[in-house]
Design goal:
The chain is of the alpha/beta class and 274 residues long. The chain contains nine helices and eleven strands. It is 24% helix and 20% strand.
Length: 274
């Protein structure tokens, strides 16, 4: 059993977790979907607080709390209207819990509690590292284009999965559209032609779509789908179910528009990239 108090870690993204964080109590400013929760559990965290990303379609923004609950891992989410998604420091400073799972509730966490108090309570508990979560489905997919023979749309559950081979591609990610720590360079790692994200219900300070101006500055077409149209953290849902709620000027010049389906947006980007 871990010794108390446990280390408290603040991160802009759950994907910044490393094996060194095993057994820690974490606030990560990622969405609370199943991809993020499974990633955190795989790193052996003891407990985690995430951002509810507006909750969205089929409660996808907090679905990871159920997964953590099945593993007996305390999990909670702050309201997207209380602190900026993608900004760990802001989450600890301003975040207010909107959702807690049964394991977190048993330790005294409640809706309306501050993120800081919740972290302190978790750090004072005797908790073990999370067990390994069940293996998920493939997180990257390639979808053949109907408008450009031979071309493909690259679909992924997380923007962290983009690779150098995606340079110049039309990419759909199921990540939130917020910058990590407010840093423009985190909008995307690779110079793709276009990128789609989830707007995480936009939230406080417009954080859920913060990547779009940063992509514009790099000449990359950027758009977000509504959190209520597609499941955050699910790339295939983003592509098949999503509808565009926000886009940047570069995307507009290439034929993007509010209200398009994500698939229609990608078709327009494939044509523009010829």
């Amino acid at each position: 059993m871990s010794l108390s108090p446990l280390a408290m870690i603040t991160l802009d993204s759950v994907t910044h977790l490393t094996p060194a964080h095993r057994g820690a109590v974490v606030y990560a400013a990622s969405h609370g979907g199943t991809y993020a929760a499974a990633y955190a559990a795989a790193k052996g965290i003891a407990a985690i607080i995430l951002n509810d990303a507006g909750i969205g379609r089929e409660r996808a923004g907090i679905a990871g709390l159920d997964l953590l609950g099945d593993l007996r891992v305390p999990g909670a989410a702050i309201a997207h209207t209380s602190a900026r998604i993608g900004d760990g420091r802001d989450g600890v400073a301003r975040g207010i819990l909107s959702t807690v799972n049964a394991s977190a509730s048993a330790l005294g966490l409640t809706v309306g509690m501050s993120c800081r108090e919740a972290l302190e309570r978790l750090a004072g508990a005797a908790l073990n590292p999370a067990p390994a979560p069940p293996l998920g489905d493939e997180a990257r997919h390639e979808i053949d284009s109907d408008v450009r023979p031979g071309a493909k749309v690259i679909v992924m559950d997380s923007a962290s999965l983009v690779t150098p081979s995606d340079a110049g591609a039309v990419v759909v990610t199921a990540s939130h559209g917020g910058l990590l720590g407010g840093k423009p360079e985190t909008a995307i790692k690779i110079p793709v032609f276009s990128a789609v994200y989830n707007d995480a219900a936009i939230g406080v300070d417009g954080a859920g779509i913060g990547r779009l101006p940063a992509l514009d500055a790099r000449g990359i077409a950027g758009a977000c789908v509504s959190a209520f149209s597609a499941r955050i953290g699910d790339g295939l849902s983003t592509y098949h179910d999503g509808f565009i709620s926000a886009l940047n000027e570069t995307a507009t010049r290439h034929g993007g528009r509010i209200g398009q389906s994500a698939a229609e947006f990608c078709d327009a980007m494939l044509v523009a990239s010829l």
